[in-house]
Amino acid sequence: MANYLAQFQAIKSSSDRLVVAVEDVSDLWPSVKEGFEARLPLKKACLNNKTRNPVYVENLPAEFILTTDARLRSRFPQEQYLFWFREPYATVVLVSCEDLDEFKTILKPRLKLIVQNEEREWFIVYVSKAHPSNDQATKMAKKVYARLEVDFSSKRRERCCKLDLNGADASFWEDFDSKIVESIRNTLERRVQFYEEEIRKMSEQRLMPVWNFCNFFILKESLAFMFEMAHLHEDSLREYDELELCYTETVNTPGKQRDFGGLEQGDDQAALLKPEFKPLSQIVQDDSFREFEFRQYLFACQSKLLFKLGRPVEVVARGYSFIISFSKTLALHEKFLPFCLREVWVITACLAIISSISSIYDGELAAPDIEKEFYRFQGDLYSLCRVKFMRLAYMIGYGVDIEKSSVNSASLSMLPWPKPAVWPSIPADASAEVLAKEKMILQANPRMKHFNIQRKPLPLEPSSLLREANRRRASLSVGNVSELLDVRPTDGSGLDGYQRFSPPSKIYASPMPRTYSGPVNFESSVSLDRPMRLSEIHVAAEHALNQTITDPDLLKSLSSLEEFEKKYMELTKGAADNYHHSWWRRHGVVLDGEIAALYFKNGNYDLAAKSYEKVCALYAGEGWQDLLAEVLPNLAECQKILSDEAGYLSSCVRLLSLENGLFLTKERQAFQSEVVHLAHSEMEHPVPLDVSSLITFSGNPGPPLELCDGDPGTLSVSVWSGFPDDITLESLNLTLMATFNADEGVKTINSSDAHILKPGRNVITLDVPPQKPGSYVLGVLTGQIGNLGFRSHSFSKGGPPDSDDFMSYEKPTRPVLKVLKPRPLVDIAAAVSSALLMNEIQWLGLIVKPIKYSLKGALLSIDTGPGLMIDESHMIEIDDHVKPMEDKVHADELDITKENAFSTVKFKLVLENGKVALPDWASDITTVLWFPVRAIDDRMAVAASADCPQRQSVVDGMRTIALKLEFGAFCNQIFERTIAVHFTDPFHVTTRVSDKCNDGTLLLQVMIHSQVKATLYLHDAWLHLQPGFVHVGKANGRPVSGFFPLVISPSSTAGILFSVCIESMPFGDQTELLQTQSILNIMYGISGDRTNGAHAPASLKSGSNDKLHFKVAIALQRPVLDPCVAVGFIPFSSDCLRVGQLVSMKWRVERLKDMEASNPSSSCNDEVLYEVDANPEIWMIAGRKRGHISLSNARGSRIEIIVTCMPLISGHVRPPHLGLPGLGDENISCNPAGPHLVCVLPPTLSSSYCTPA
Amino acid sequence: MIACVAVVGHQNNPLYLQSFTEADDALKLHHIVHCSLDVIDERVNNPKRSVLTLNETFLGLLFPTESYKVFGYLTNTKVKFIMVTTDLDVKDADVRSFFRRFHAAYVDAVSNPFHVPGKKIASRIFAGRVSGIVKTFALGTNG
């Protein structure tokens, strides 16, 4: 059967669609052909797949072929059986007949003959040529068709349909389509069953010697091909998958040695997307196929189907794993394959898949995650291709151009060298090339890293190429290895290989291969036994590769260093771009670094810097410092070349902030000197430098600094410097951030002087201006190095800047500064609450009490109000003050505590410009300041009548003193207060005529009430009487001197009686006399303590006998001798008054004598002015308090004044008093004569809220 | 042979990385471990697409190349253990038990009250234990 392979392939390629046979019985094909073929491809054909499930095929291509066609006729039965898939899937029988007899006699037997073949799926299309207008013909056609249906259709299956040539009938075509599809479906099903049966039978023989994979393959692929033709790609793919499995099993069966393949010209180019690359008949090997070609073939078929299924993603995924696994297979057979065929094949395979995919995939058909996966696989392909490409390039000496980065090292140094049976040897006439390579190796200058960083380059070879190549040469034994060491490993990568088996001292011993330096003796040196030198290995490999590679693109890419770079860039970019679109971000970014290296090499520093930045960001973001330390110097170098000062500085800072072990101290010092150098140079665009990773800061441990509202202060902060050396800062500032309010903004505080930061911890003090109340945390550290501003955001937790701490940017919550809410810091109060003496120099005490706040340097401004002045002749005294509480506790030991309460230590202070400075010792304790003051009152005191004591107004004796205390460290705190001080006369004097004697002598009782909290001593008192009164017995009005001194205790009263009599004098003088007053003079002394109240005036020396003089005016009235008006209070109608009850007050006013005679001035007016005087706290008066009433001037005329009042409080109270201001008191006779009291009861209880019991 | 083992923190920061190669080329192993985080990320972010079930800490083979294999292991706290081996046919069960012991050693190391979570593991005892585990693994797979 394997002989049919060629034929099978031919048939497969010629038939690509399902065939529908047309049995043209009545020569109708030409007339219906167009209509039939218009139905193709079949729409929405419903077919059954292998598992008998319906599948809708959108467009099923098919072809109508007449049974008379040569293609269908010339087939042998054997072939039919084998290649059944190409046989017709349906037979359409075209008939036309318009005569019933003819149908019966001729057509029917013929049709019976045609349809008797059981295996065919057939149906009859009856074509009616009758014109619709021709009734006869139409009728006939109908009859014949009816007959036809009776004869050929069964209940189970309709096999006839009727096509009207002259009348288009849509329903016919639907019918026609469904019949064709039905036939195809049935045929397909039958054939699938057939093939399955055959395959099953054959599979059973798999372990037998007769097993022939080719036969199995033909059956299996026929089935697959049939599915493919029917557009059941899914099933077809499954067949190929099974075929692949089966083949792998067959190949791996031990015992049989098979040719692998891959030795032919062009095999190095992967054919994994070209099923037709080699005819299968060429790769047959015994009963199977050569693995190299066949596996590629299978993959090609699978990928073709996958493309048809619209699953390019799967092509890539399968492709990648296929390449990996196939590469392993190639490795197994490497010995027999051309040199590096494996590598070349992988490269071409990857590129083939990539190019086919990119032309097909439009990126819209997949879900996002599938798309990412797709890009990832593409990236994988690119990167695999890239690795292999680098490997080839390395072998031919382009290693000098490959960056010795971690990614390249990871992919190359763990990838074994190719293992050919014999390493290619150098061709005879290659001396010039060897020289060229030698030159290239020698010229290749390992690039010095910026900052003089010295690192051993990472290896790019798994073991030394030199050793590997020579070892595999047939003629050389490993023992000669020491000879190899003469070659300097200029690319640095071969170093590892040597070090393992040679004393290290020899490595650099001979920098040039002197022995073979000239071309003269070169020819002779290519002896068989001499180990090849590196340059020779490169040349040999290049020649061998040129033999292997047939792909012109790849050849070109390896032809020169420039071409290599171009391809290398293309592959790296391809990988990076695809990885960027996938989940594998890191892979992409790392490859960006490789692109950057290439850009850098080509002088494209701008792009290089951009890519390096990405790589650095990746490594820095996740804290991979070792990797970062490798890339960051490159970035810095780019930035330096581009004169990107800001970037360069920040790179230097980042380098400095890397872990200590990653760079030598010398290198770190180089970084610092770069920073300092740039900072002090003239930068074009100075940008603040972020040194968060290098300089960190924290508040000092312990409680935060506490400041009162409005106070400045100094804050001390720890700053950690990560610089390797001392660094001088021009300035250093910190911001404070309020924790209570984010909108408050930040406040900057400055460190006053320049600093040198040592490596490690430094303590910096900063001045804090007054802040708003609240707590503050440290914000940002800013400062200046040279002309360069820098800032740092990071907080250290009391340790050195922690390189591991890259993710802990959380703000420290511990506040460093607390500004307390405004609170009273000091209190100033008057020391004494009782009254002081008016018009005398008195000590005014002010208690200055600091409330947990120092008053150091405080200044007290004193501003006295009107009527008060400070007596400047005296110093201000200051005392220590002890709390009055103690006073009370030790009340028993009165004397002692008093001594203690006001310490005897007194200091004198001077008032300057109304200000007094408090002494330092008084800054923290409560003190009393004593000011000598004098309150001035020009008015003379007036004695009151004992009968109606006039309330003395407190306001009269009140004086104010405005105080302003400036304190705090910077006199920033101000305390202001106005203090009221009460001054009073020493005595309040009331007088009373205690008795009127019959002889006209009046006993005048003068009562002296002490108004001060001090003991008063009356030394003398005399009454200077006004005219109209005289002392009895012409005395000088002094009481008996033996009474004096009279001691009046605080708040007590003394009385003195004077006997006076009325001087007789002419009546006419009376009016003058009314205006004058008598004066009571009192000489007194005072003994009081200023801490209690009034005391002896400061001007008097204590203990001296100086006496004070007090005058009080006493109004004496001559008695009323002939009243002209009488006022009588008329008793109430009811006995008792109640609070809240209205009551009518009635007074009767009566003229006692004619006014005309006595007082002509008022005669014109017969009206009398009245005024009701009542205590408003006791009485509420309704009606006019004051007014005129008419009272006739005639004697005896009388009138009643009624005022309605309401008592407000209960008790015995004075009733309102009716006065007549127009008449002098002496002209009025009152009844009752003096004040009297009325009784007011409490209000009646309200019962409205009481509920009866 | 195990080329390298690493512990990577939940923010993908390296916590511990020890290479067991003779050559001074640890950097390339850093690179391999770092890049393998891509695969772990992908698996963790697309749980339905991967075979990884939620209860399984062992991530299996992360990515195979022609020359080495990378295995991963993910703890509940999103700490990753990564192992790079040049041994191309290792048994999953061996790797699984290796990781389990590695995990146990890690748990002991971070249970040290003086260890700051999220910081590199500097414990020498841990390093010693890990080398021991690696040695046992090599013996197990070879023998």
UniProtKB/TrEMBL annotation, chain A:
Alphabetically sorted, this entry's keywords are: Golgi apparatus, Transport
Protein's organism: Ensete ventricosum
Domain TRAPPC10/Trs130 N-terminal: from-to ranges: 16-315
Which InterPro entries does the record match to this protein? TPR-like_helical_dom_sf (IPR011990), TRAPPC10/Trs130 (IPR045126), TRAPPC10/Trs130_C (IPR022233), TRAPPC10/Trs130_N (IPR056913)
| Pfam assignment, any one | TRAPPC10
Localization, per the record, is: Golgi apparatus
Keyword Cell division (UniProt): no
Principal location: Golgi
Which protein, by its recorded name, is this?
Answer: Trafficking protein particle complex subunit 11 domain-containing protein
Which GO CC annotations does the UniProt entry carry?
cytosol; TRAPPII protein complex
Indicate the segments forming the TRAPPC10/Trs130 C-terminal domain, all copies.
1134-1217
Name the GO terms of the biological process aspect.
Answer: early endosome to Golgi transport; intra-Golgi vesicle-mediated transport
TrEMBL record, chain B:
Q: Which residues cross the membrane?
A: none
The protein's superkingdom reads Eukaryota
One Gene Ontology term of the biological-process aspect is: endoplasmic reticulum to Golgi vesicle-mediated transport
Could you state one GO cellular component term attached to this entry? cytoplasm
Q: Which InterPro entries match?
A: Longin-like_dom_sf, Sedlin, TRAPPC2L
Q: Pfam families annotated for this entry?
A: Sedlin_N
Q: Which family does it belong to?
A: Belongs to the TRAPP small subunits family. Sedlin subfamily.
| Name this protein carries in UniProt | Trafficking protein particle complex subunit 2-like protein
Q: Which source organism does the UniProt entry give?
A: Musa acuminata subsp. malaccensis
**Organism placement in taxonomy:** Eukaryota, Viridiplantae, Streptophyta, Embryophyta, Tracheophyta
